[in-house]
Amino acid sequence: MTQPYWSRQARAQYYALTGGRKYAKPLLYGAGIGALASAAYGASKSYKPYGVRYAAGSKKPKRSKYKRQKKPPLVSINKKLKKLARTSDASTGNLTYRSNTTHNIICPENEQIATEFGPNTVNQIESSLQYCKFFNPSVPGTLTTANLSTGNYQRDVLFNNISQKLVFRNNYNVPCELTVYLCKVKDDTSQGVVTAWDAAVPDASNLTDSTDLNQYPSDYHLVTDLWNLTKKCEVILQPGDMKQVNHASGQFSYDPATADVHTTSYQKENKAYVWLVVLKGVIAHDSSVGTEQGLGGAGVDVESRIVYNIEYNAGTNIKYTQVNNTYDAFTNVPQVSNKPACDNQTYQIA
User: Fold this and answer.
1) Which of 60, 88, 160, 198 has the fewest CB atoms in 10 Å of its CB?
2) CATH of the domain at 231
3) Torsion 26-32-35-36 (CA) sign
4) Domain, as residue range, for 234
5) Whole-prediction pTM value?
6) Distances (CA, A) of 291 to 122, 285, 342
7) pLDDT tens per residue, range 286-342
């Protein structure tokens, strides 16, 4: 039997319906398009893909036995961590200790004043440990206060954070230039930034100490070898202007028994840092002699806010807040300055 001629359209329909499978090959001879479509439809209904299991005498695939999926390892770990956290919380003490103090910085004419503020020297850390509260089973109705810094036995205290915020306000009648550096200790030392700066100046310059103008702490290797300096701000504060800076140390573990022997004030493992504040006046001229120019005096008031977050084994779940406020009592009326009028009056610090 000879193969009939098929048009291109007929061949396209054939391949579209059958995919060119072998079981439709006999339909090439003498079959019309209608018969071809009917045969292809029936073949598609009886076609069983390779690799699929079928039950005996059934056209439906055989359903495999259900296997329960295992929980992902991460879910199991998270459950264990939550259980461990609940167990730990049952005997963990949490102390939040806040210490607020006030200061002022006064700079004479044609000088600069460098001052430092810091929250986590060894003495400051151990001072914060004297307010820890404990549960005493023999006196269950009263919490016992104990100083964790005493005793020679080894134990660890977890400091979740030590943060310090400095608030500067120009409450004086003249503008000032304020520069603030965040200084993180590189190597354990008992030399603060200002002490190291003053010690380095005579050996590395023709100046006397840090009060001389036109010098910076980064000029001296003694300072940069011990401290990592980051300038946080450099601003002109008009009377009444305010500026805030803050930093948090992050988490570290502290052992008071080690500090009893290793007594260096600033220790890297405690993430020690200080704020270096450099203050100076702005350019001015004499109130009577107009040909005399220089830097005027300057001053700012400072509020320091330190927060210690401490965790320790207290025998039961205790959360306690200790606040120490050290503010001066005013002899007279509190003085707050605002921006003076723009005229040619004579303004001095006081």
Assistant:
1) 60
2) 2.60.120
3) positive
4) 91-326
5) 0.74
6) 51, 7, 21
7) 989 989 999 999 999 999 999 999 999 888 889 999 999 999 999 999 988 887 555
